[in-house]
Each structure stands twice: as C-alpha cells, then as structure tokens.
Design goal:
single chain, 372 residues
C-alpha cells in the first residue's frame, strides 16, 4: 500500500511538471535575458541613451527593452506558485546556503589565485564584507530582496486568500499606482523609498499581481497572441518614448534626464510588458515527452545558480572581457556574439550548479535528516 502511494505521488509530481513546463521554459528564457542585460551593460555595448545616435546603439537599446522584463518575470513566476504553497524554513535555509556557497567558493578561488591580494576601491574590509555575508550585505541584490519577499509570503498569502476578486483587483491598482505609475508619469516627484524596482515593495507588488493571475487567470479573456503583441509594443514603446523625451528636451531643455525612465523594472511600460508576456505563457500549453521534460526541468533548476555565478562581485565585470565583448560593441556582429556568449555563460552556470546541487543535497540530508 505504501509503495502504491509513493508511485502515485511520483506520477502526480511528474504530471504537474509537464503541466508547468511552460513556466520552466519561461524561467530559462528570463535568465538568458538577465545575462543579455549584463552583456550589454557590463560589456560596454550599451552606449549612453541620451547621446547615442548610431544604428548599432539603437539596436542594443531595443534588445535591452525586450529583456528588461526578465526580473519581473522571475518574481511573477515565484509569486504564481508561492501564493498557493506552504512556507518552509528549509527552503529559506537551503537558498541561503546556496548563496553562501557561490559567494564563498568563488571568493576563495580568487584569493588563492591572486594570493589574497584583492584590490577593492572601498578598502579591504568593506569590500570583503558583502562577499562574506552575501545576503545581509546585498552582494546579490536580487537574492537579498527575493529572500525578504519569501519571508513575508506566508503573511501575504493569508491576506490574498481572505480577499475577494474586487478587493484583490483594487489592491493591485493601488500598488501599481504607488510603485509604478507614479514613477513613470511623475518621475520628478519619486518617493524617497523608490529604488527603480530593486526593492521588496516592488517584489510584493508583483507577488500580488501573480497571485491574481493564479486565482483568476482563466477569467482573463485575452488572446495569447494579443498578449505577445502587447509585450512587443510596450518594449518598443519604452525605446520610442525615451527618444520622444530626448526630442522634447532638444526643444525645451527640461526632459533629457528622464529619457531612460521607461526602462526601469517598475516603469509602467516594463510592467505591462512583463504581465503580457506572462499571460502569453500561461495560455500556452506545452506538451513534451518524458526525456524533454526532464531536460527542461534539469536546466530550469540551475537558473538561479547561473545568476549567482556570473553576477559574483569578482566576476560580473570579468567574464565580458573573457569573451571580448567590447570588440563587438560598434558592429551588428555583437548580435550573434551576444547569442553565443549568453549560451556559453548559461551552459557553464548550469553545469556548475549541478555540482553545487550535489553539495547542497549532502548538506540538506545532514541538516534535515529527521524531517519528514
């Protein structure tokens, strides 16, 4: 009887994985977008928006717009599943350990290779603190904010479950008005707490939106292809609106400083684009065989490790030099080079994270061996 239950549970989990394959593919795509953003920015391909007038530069900024949804998408995926799951301190501990492992091991490797001769502009001690305490020291801003969101998620879930549809919708309107519309329409009066979407308040806003899509997504009567078109139009719109402000600035001399405002994570253009792409994926059902499913899930499981690897403080500006990104900054050749670089960084990250999973698995067994 016990064996049958175990088999049924495995079958159910397998079936669930298949139903959520679209989300796992989206998670992979979002991480590739994040690497793309770092390629463009830290690789020197992205020129100053206000002074850029080249075709190559414009192409880079358009690609940047299409990839700006990446962080929002990652949070939306998390909120979509977390809103109907139970809080587990084990998950928090293992996530914290994963972050520590990446920060400490990479730092140790650099210490050995460079024989401890780090050169931090802020000073040795101040520069090392984020590496030694990566979560509380905000070494990885996304990881820190994500953990904060996860810690408050059980309280958010209580409120979300207690709300009816109208109340939930009104809450979203208020949160979006405060944390997105205000920043987009009235950027010159931004609240002191606004961090351009890199804070827990914005993550909570996205969490509430994701929970609404989870509860009432089936009631959203919008064609998935229209959703995809809205995503594309909003991304192109972010670029065109920025150019429009530059044109207005050339006449009035008053709006140039806001031309990149539509590119922030919490800008209205990027928010709408993020939700539209997310709805497109929700409405896209993907069927695949067991082998393909296992491969996708294996890759998806390593995406966070890809982030922790290539965004380590000692690596984030180094790997673009390994791939000679700056050599392609003035040519459209940067596009194929971008694709090859992103694929290489992503693949390396997945492989390394597989090794990390073995280590974390051993730690998991040791710490939670008595947990049922």
């Amino acid at each position: 009887m016990g064996n049958n239950k175990a088999v049924n549970k495995k079958t159910e989990e397998k079936s669930t994985s298949k139903r959520q394959l679209n989300m796992e593919i989206l998670r992979i795509a979002a991480m590739c977008m994040i690497i793309t953003l770092h390629y463009l920015d830290k690789g020197g391909v992205l020129k100053e928006f206000a002074t850029n007038n080249t075709a190559v530069g414009n192409a880079a900024w358009i690609i940047e717009a299409f990839c700006m949804v990446s962080v929002n998408i990652y949070v939306l995926i998390s909120g979509y599943f977390l809103c109907e799951s139970n809080f587990k301190i084990k998950k928090t501990v293992l996530l914290w350990i994963q972050i520590l492992l990446y920060s400490w091991i990479i730092t140790a490797i650099f210490a050995i290779v460079l024989k401890g001769q780090f050169n931090f502009e802020e000073g040795m001690l101040y520069g090392l603190l984020p590496l030694l305490m990566p979560v509380t020291g905000s070494h990885y801003w996304f990881a820190t904010v994500y953990i904060l969101m996860y810690l408050v998620s059980p309280f958010l879930n209580i409120g979300i479950k207690a709300m009816d549809k109208k109340t939930h919708r009104n809450l979203i309107i208020i949160l979006v008005a405060i944390f997105s519309i205000w920043n987009t329409i009235l950027p010159f009066t931004i609240p002191a707490t606004d961090r351009k979407g890199m804070d827990v308040c914005w993550f909570i806003c996205l969490y509430v939106i994701a929970a609404y899509l989870r509860k009432y997504g089936e009631e959203i009567k919008i064609n998935k292809w229209l959703s995809l078109a809205i995503y594309a139009l909003c991304c192109i719109g972010a670029f065109l609106l920025g150019k429009g402000l530059l044109l207005l600035d050339s006449i009035t001399g008053k709006f140039g400083g806001f031309c990149k405002n539509f590119y922030e994570y919490n800008s209205l253009t990027i928010l709408i684009a993020s939700v539209a792409l997310f709805i497109f994926v929700i409405k896209t059902k993907i069927k695949a065989g067991d082998v393909v499913t296992k491969i996708v899930l294996f890759i998806s499981e390593g995406t966070f490790g890809v982030y922790l690897l290539h965004e380590h403080k000692l690596l984030r500006y180094l790997w673009p030099t390994w791939f000679n990104v700056s050599d392609y900054a003035e040519s459209f050749a940067f596009i194929p080079h971008l694709l090859l670089t992103v694929a290489s960084v992503f693949a390396a990250g997945v492989v390394i994270d597989f090794i990390r999973r073995i280590i974390t698995g051993a730690i998991d067994t040791f710490i939670f061996k008595n947990e049922k």
